[in-house]
Amino acid sequence: MEKIILLMCILSLEDVQAFSSDNQNQAITKCIQKTGVDESIVTRMGVTLDIPDNSVVKKFLACLNKKLGFQNEEGDMLFDNLRGNLVGMSSEEVNSTVSTCKQVKGTNSIENSYLVTKCIFRKIKSIIKLKKRK
User: Fold this and answer.
1) Of the chain's two ends, which shows fewer C-beta atoms within 10 Å, N or C?
2) Domain CATH number, residue 124
3) pTM
4) pLDDT digits over 17-28, tens only?
């Protein structure tokens, strides 16, 4: 578990880097331990920006978003905190991502975390595709 790679921890594809912060490896490690999610799934999510639709992954994302301050205990996403952690993107790209993903709402805190994270990853993937075309 020493070398946990990516997923909201230096997601570095091309020039887009998402969620960079000093405490992320520690948060990822704690949430892997707490939820029992397979570390390889976490790594794969960080590399592919695709999130599997399963309950353990959803619990992991909710744990991680709360530990990183991206979601409050009631399950609401804290978009201002997310906004400040989307680095390597222009302010227009960040605003577009936040604006789009603010529209997404799950039925509970776990589903909310999953759907918003999936939305953000989808937006990042589209930004990466656009940058590759240039």
Assistant:
1) C
2) 1.10.238.20
3) 0.82
4) 444 455 788 899
